[in-house]
Amino acid sequence: MALERNGRWLLRRNGAGETPEGLFEFPALPLPSGRTTPATVARLVGRRWGWRVKDCRELGTVRHQILARSIAVRVFAARVVAGPAVPPRSAGAFRRADLSRLSGLPVSGATLKIARLLASR
Predict the structure, then answer these.
(1) What are the tens digits of pLDDT across the range 65-86?
(2) N or C: which terminus of the chain has fewer CB atoms within 10 Å of its end residue's CB?
(3) Domain 2-119 falls in which CATH fold?
(4) What radius of gyration, in Å, describes the C-alpha atoms of the chain?
């Protein structure tokens, strides 16, 4: 889930036991099976993190491979308009960043692919 707030994008650092551990990624939002609309995604963002979002849209799918495992990530983007600066109980895990400065952060390859998709829109 690519969430923009005040011109910067929210990233979440994976904790111990999460793969890839210690790297920043766009926050993952588990989606219900079947067709998922942007309105549904906006509601799920509110339930999970307490943010109210606008302009939620699906940008496309990013494909990524980790060793022998291939994954496809549906990318939704939205603008955060209200809610906490960071979700409760996870202050250290979230930060905001400009897309142009991601190379200075420990990020996953999938995150860089999503950033390229965002920059192309």
Answers:
(1) 877 889 888 999 999 999 887 7
(2) C
(3) Nucleoside Triphosphate Pyrophosphohydrolase (3.90.79)
(4) 14
